[in-house]
Amino acid sequence: MVHDTAFAARLASDAGRLLRRIQRDAPPDELGTRELKDRGDRESQRFLARELAEHRPDDAILSEEAEDGTARLRAERVWIVDPLDGTREFSEGRDDWAVHVALWERGALASGAVALPGLDAVLTSDGDPRLWQRPERLRLAVSRTRATPLVQRLAAELDAELVPMGSAGFKAAAVVRGEADAYVHTGGQYEWDSAAPVAVARAAGLFASRVDGRPLEYNNANPYLPDLVVCNPLIADELLGRVASILEEDAR
């Protein structure tokens, strides 16, 4: 049997190639439409579900694009997938979207892969952690359309540069790739938005947690996991401290 991480990488990569073909072949009048978004979600989900059923038939699945059930709560192995993370960017013909494939096993993330089809790249949870350096000026990966007030205040307090980009996976991958130093999110997410990116980030030696420092937990009955920090480990304490101060001020 192919190793789980290699399998995750192959699935994410192949789904990404499928999506690139759909994106490339879309007529101009479909760009930015719900129809193109739905086609991408549907075809990628169909591919991933078929591959998992064939090669990992005994495992459970949690996917953004499939009906959820209670069987996964009793399973020891659960694949957590986002067939198309960043449908808006995908439908607009942009490159800053991703495909997420992660494996949760017996209480923890065990493997993960994030495909960045627009960059022809796949990041995985294999490999050794890197030696990270403390940045001279912090770069925060933020939404290109809706940076949250907390992140804007955080950037002002830290004199950080805001680096706008698309999907959640693409932003976390920017930290892994060294193009940003942190991704702080408080706008609401689900487990499939962060599972694979967090598995990849931790393998690279990055810090990942909830914004209040609590651990990220997966395969919960309610998959809503609304906030996230992925960052250079050398700035984690300072970043969490600043976030805590902002949240305390807001609560007063």
Automatic annotation (TrEMBL):
<dbReference type="Pfam" id="PF00459">
    <property type="entry name" value="Inositol_P"/>
</dbReference>
<keyword id="KW-0479">Metal-binding</keyword>
<dbReference type="InterPro" id="IPR000760">
    <property type="entry name" value="Inositol_monophosphatase-like"/>
</dbReference>
<dbReference type="GO" id="GO:0000103">
    <property type="term" value="P:sulfate assimilation"/>
</dbReference>
<dbReference type="InterPro" id="IPR020583">
    <property type="entry name" value="Inositol_monoP_metal-BS"/>
</dbReference>
<feature type="binding site">
    <location>
        <position position="82"/>
    </location>
    <ligand>
        <name>Mg(2+)</name>
    </ligand>
</feature>
<feature type="binding site">
    <location>
        <position position="64"/>
    </location>
    <ligand>
        <name>Mg(2+)</name>
    </ligand>
</feature>
<feature type="binding site">
    <location>
        <position position="85"/>
    </location>
    <ligand>
        <name>Mg(2+)</name>
    </ligand>
</feature>
<keyword id="KW-0460">Magnesium</keyword>
<dbReference type="GO" id="GO:0046872">
    <property type="term" value="F:metal ion binding"/>
</dbReference>
<feature type="binding site">
    <location>
        <position position="193"/>
    </location>
    <ligand>
        <name>Mg(2+)</name>
    </ligand>
</feature>
<protein>
    <recommendedName>
        <fullName>3'(2'),5-bisphosphonucleoside 3'(2')-phosphohydrolase</fullName>
    </recommendedName>
</protein>
<keyword id="KW-0378">Hydrolase</keyword>
<dbReference type="GO" id="GO:0008441">
    <property type="term" value="F:3'(2'),5'-bisphosphate nucleotidase activity"/>
</dbReference>
<feature type="binding site">
    <location>
        <position position="84"/>
    </location>
    <ligand>
        <name>Mg(2+)</name>
    </ligand>
</feature>
<dbReference type="GO" id="GO:0050427">
    <property type="term" value="P:3'-phosphoadenosine 5'-phosphosulfate metabolic process"/>
</dbReference>
<dbReference type="InterPro" id="IPR050725">
    <property type="entry name" value="CysQ/Inositol_MonoPase"/>
</dbReference>
